[in-house]
Amino acid sequence: YVNATADNIRNQCTKDLEITCLTDNFAGITQVDKVIKFNNNWNKWWGKIEIFRNDITQNDECVFMDLDTVCYNNIDFLWSIENDNFYGLRDFYSLDVFQTGLMRWKQNDNMHKLYDNFVSNNLYPKYKLLGDHEYIGKFPIEKHYFQDIFPSKIVSYKKSLPHLSKNLIDP
Questions:
Q1: What are 60-87's pLDDT values in tens digits?
Q2: Which has the least CB within 10 A, 97, 99, 132, 146?
């Protein structure tokens, strides 16, 4: 999945990217620029919190995609945002919920605090049975939604299938 996602991103983007994978299993990962081991042994999606560590990348701008994200057309627009805001997905069913399957941020101390706060306050037991979006959604940092600035560019296959099948949207 990592190799397929990396290939998909490169095939749909003209930007010079550094694709990084955080994992606990390095086996067979060949299509990324950098592989980093998790610092923590958190279950399932909780490793996603580690993308906010200050040692992950020296790049100023970061875009994160879950492994189940498919880039259907060119995604250069994700790097066209001319502000330092933190972006994520508006939940496709509960429109006021911040989701984390796709995120974009500029590296800064506030973003690193997402990780540092989670670790230093031992919040994993508190949030373990919830989603990472529950923690990130409550973290005191201003959040914005991709769908608000790129209408119809980012869709849910499940939710948007009728529109996709009738060619009413072109994500």
A1: 899 999 998 989 899 999 999 989 999 9
A2: 97
